[in-house]
Amino acid sequence: METRDMDTLVNQVADLMVNSRRMVVFTGAGVSTESGIPDFRSPGGIWSRFDPEDFTYQKFVSDSEARRKHWQLLREGSLTTDARPNPAHYAITELDSLGMLDCVITQNVDNLHQKAGVPDEKVFELHGNLLWAACLSCGRRYPFDEIKLRLDKGEEMPDCEACHGILKPAAVFFGEALPADVLGEAAQRSQNCDLFIVIGSTLVVYPAAYMPQYAVDAGAKLVIINLSSTPMDNDATVLISAKAGEAMSAVLEKVKEKKAAS
Ligand code: ZN
């Protein structure tokens, strides 16, 4: 994209944001890849090296060998705890500090929006959060760091310290239902916003991809910032084909200029 075109589009997005009364930001894997987190579903991603069949919810709860493999993968992965937020995360956090953010709805499980400073209660994690594990029997939650210490000490299948139930990473697995309360609240926020910003998602994974559809159906304006095309490109008021960090940093600067001038 030519620089001049990019400036125009960034300016349009900033205008929409400044004039919005309720803005929802929706983030996908494209926001996390800039923090070095692999897109699980892309070529070279985890699912091209492992069989997704081994990682379904049903298999995890019924097959101890699958659990052992899963914990091993998470232990080796270091895919979450070491990752740092990138400029896209920080730009979104700053929009919140400016009082412009209703909430973030994310497909990502890496906790990076919270790490960048968006308050927990404003982050709706449709696919859960890998930085936690939960007991399937009593519901007790454990930070992944704690579990990792136990794995590093040689435990192959950490169980619940309270009831010895099965511990499962708090991210949504293949074949597992999305958390109904989070999904419901996210859908409602989408329907009630006037501006919906998609960042780094190709909008092909459902039900997450219903969110922008809910927003548009209810009359909200749609912005899509993504490197590749999406099924909703034609619904977008502004479409920016660029990396998330680069585009959002530029948008934030423009928003601040406009705020200062008004
Ligand atoms: Zn338990």
Q: Name the structural class.
A: alpha/beta
Roughly how many Å apart are the termini?
A: 30 Å
Number of helices: 11
Largest sheet: 6 strands, parallel
- What is the beta-strand fraction? 15-25%
Give the proportion of residues in helices. Answer: 40-55%
Which ligands, by name, code or SMILES, are bound?
A: zinc ion
Helices and strands, in order, run as HEHHHHHEHEEEHEHEHEEH
What strand order characterises the main sheet?
3-2-1-7-8-9
Rg is 19 Å
Number of strands: 9
Shape: elongated
The low-confidence runs, each spanning 5 or more residues with pLDDT under 50, are none
**What's the rounded overall pLDDT mean?**
91
Protein model, in words:
With 262 residues, the chain is of the alpha/beta class. It has eleven helices and nine strands. The protein starts with a helix and ends with a helix. Zinc ion (ZN) binds next to loops. Zinc ion binds at residues 135, 137-138, 140, 160, 162-163, 165.
